[in-house]
Specification:
Tetracycline Repressor, domain 2, 6 helices, 48% helix, binds the ligand Nc1c(N[C@@H]2O[C@H](COP(=O)(O)O)[C@@H](O)[C@H]2O)[nH]c(=O)[nH]c1=O, YbiA-like_sf, NADAR domain-containing protein, NADAR
Length: 159
Amino acid sequence: MTIYFYKVEEPYGCFSNFSPHPIQIDGWCWQTVEHYYQAHKFVGTTDEALIRTIKNVSTPMEAALLGRDRTRNHRPDWEQVKQQIMWRGVLTKFLTHPDIQQILLNTGEDVIVEDSPTDYYWGCGEDQTGENHLGKMLMNVRQHIRQHLAQANCKLVDR
Ligand SMILES: Nc1c(N[C@@H]2O[C@H](COP(=O)(O)O)[C@@H](O)[C@H]2O)[nH]c(=O)[nH]c1=O
């Protein structure tokens, strides 16, 4: 089976980076993965003040709009680091919240697709030809957490 998700209020909406699941990374608390991800576009730039602004806006959509503002200075290495930054955010989200971790694990080996009509990088785009990096990342997080849990169980048995 293939699982499609996009809007928070629709099935599997907890897989969206817009879902209201806070994460804490390096002592900073982010309301959503989207807040965290968008703010990191400005690390080390002359627009660094925007990081705090994005952190404090009340919705992930506001965070996304600020982060996507092309009149602002994005870090020059963004394309090289964005996967790594997203990985940290998404993994932390599913390690922090046991209820949605269970939903992710219960998807078994199903393919997961971010059914975004506009995003051909993180999602599948309108015509399904997109790269679906967020869906792929969620499947990798699922695998990573399974291995992590298996190792923890082995340690318990070894005692
Ligand atoms: N879920 C969701 C979106 N998708 C999210 O947008 C982010 C990509 O942003 P960027 O790299 O700036 O293009 C990434 O987290 C992707 O999952 N976008 C939306 O406008 N609405 C939404 O409900």
